[in-house]
User: Fold this.
Amino acid sequence: MTGLSALPLELFPPFTSTATVKIAAANAAEETFRSLLVARSWDLLHAHSATLAGHAAALLAHAQARAHLVARQTPALAERDAGLAQAFAALAADRSAGATALRDAVLAQATAQLGDAAAAQALLDALLAGNHPLFEARAAERSAAVAEVDVVGTACVQLAVLSHRAAGESALHKAYDVTRDQGVGPDRPADLQVLRDEADGLRSLHDDAVGALFAHLDTEDDRDGFADLAVALAARIEARGPVAAMLVGSYLALLSRRPDVQGSLAEHRAALDVVELVERLRVVHAYSWLVRTELVGPDAGRWYSHERRRTDARTQPSLVVTGQSLAVQELVDGTGAEGDLVTVEGVVDALAIDDDPSPPKFSTFCDIVDLASGGSLRVRAHMFSLLNNGLQDGAFTRLTGFVRRSAPWAGPVGLDVDRVDLTDLARQSWYDDMTARLRPHVLLRPDGMSMFFTPPVRTE
Amino acid sequence: MPCTVELNRQDDKFQAWQNGYADWQEARNLALAADAAVLGTCGAAVYTAGGFGFTAAACLAAVTALAIAVARNDTALDKLYTAKDAYGLAVRRYDDCLARCRPAAG
Assistant:
């Protein structure tokens, strides 16, 4: 033993080999999340949120320890690589009989150990030429750590995101169920202001967070400061999100006590604002965790440098286009020409997948019912299933699409839902780039469908 | 249940990564044992740049054994990286599916 600095602490129990064990446990927890979500087991999902958060914390701690240990080893390994390389270089240059005997001894031993004379000669040649892995221990340890932190870090972000999502989903749906079961409602005028205040608070949090992240990357060069910012933002979003979800869940239940949804456009719009902001904040939350995990790894410096360069040719805001905002009735009455991009709001009805005559494929069709006028509009998601994305009859939606006035499915007027191409927008917009990169963890617009929607409101 | 195909693929690739990880750990432990043998035979100066030469046959034999162990560790690492990349892709696809997974209609 050569002292504490040379001890391979990363191999000591209980750290030994625990990356795979921790990932296996995280995968099992992820699977439990899926089962509970699909089964609508809100109480269990709420409790499971803490389990998911615990896994995220354990994975983060593992990544931090692994990265710290490899950094600690680096100087010793670099010296060792240099020492061995120097000794073999001297052996290669030495033409004495003694050195020849030593080289012959290496060849004989390698032949005996490898059982292959050619491989033994290749080994000796590589050692004498200085291009054997023996001289690259520092690089090998570092790349092994980078690879491990990559797997562990990805799992960490995913588990943190699922924990937050479990808390939010369970809060929203449980609050809806409990409020419905209590038989209170319908909503009162003052309730609308509560929702609007909540939406304002969430919008401030979202805009401030996005602005702070972009500004930091754009104007500062402070890796630790950026990590601290990410930690703070994640904590703020984790504290706010579930409460907002609970509030909107209860409010939707109150709305469901109305005998008729007609005349409640402002109320549904306020609810959808909160839902959309909760979803947008999930993206920021996921990004914050991505920053946390990336900045602990051995490649943190390079990652941060790349991340800072992402602001160079990109503007901060999203470039997703929404077109002109129109009421359904305005479209029915003739506003908007064929092919115009417009945004409408309304309640989803008659949602179904059906044959689409041109081209012959299946598409999703539904009606969007205007809550101010009662008018309705046919909508098509061309060759995509909105049902798979969670849309249901009774949901209130805000969607962007192209006006169709002569399509066979559209009647007098219809809308083809626009498909957002984040890959393209991400080249110009930092927000869209962030949203695109985090798609595996948080999907802001499933299938790129340009729409947001609430859970369904079942009226009496 | 949604995402079952993606989950099964992730499980398969995880198994391969786990096996690769175990193989690497085994090769790494052998390399560390060879490393300890080098230190025991040659002394700590072998890992210090400046002036050390292989004048002792026993030391060089230990270093040769280490070189072979390190090369095997390197091979195990390459296999681990391949398995890790495949697992990473499967994880991405499963996570992607889970992100779009919604509660069943209530």
